[in-house]
């Protein structure tokens, strides 16, 4: 009888944990995507004259996205080998580099005007396809990554695996295309 009660209590606890995870993911999604949306419509707070070359920040964005890609691939490598400790370390590193990316991204777009892509022809089509899919999936990845992370650190393994199967490839796509967008637009800064 006590085992049955303990099991029911455990399941109720897990459900409450997951509701908390979802709320944390929703709040962080609103904050992060809301901040980026505001910056998109504001188009910079000033004239970009802050005492240093702001174009270093988009390069830093690309570097941080590159690190995120490497860290995600490392996390994938280790989890496929059932090395949870190394998987977690690489996921922590991916979140760190993504956080640094977000800081440099918000700083740049808060201080500088948007840069327009200057290419034409089929290359412009490729650029805009990559850019649009990157933006849409960057919005989607915020709640997926947060929820995957929270479920993983709280050992909700079944739920973590279900969402991580979507999160990993999408996050990789976003980090890789972030670098490609930078490479394609960098001549126009």
TrEMBL record:
Protein name as catalogued: Putative membrane protein
Bilayer-spanning residue ranges: 21-42, 62-80, 92-111, 126-150, 170-188
Keyword field contains Acetylation: no
Signal peptide: none
Keyword annotations of the record: Membrane, Transmembrane, Transmembrane helix
InterPro entries named in the record: DUF420
Presence of keyword Cell wall biogenesis/degradation: no
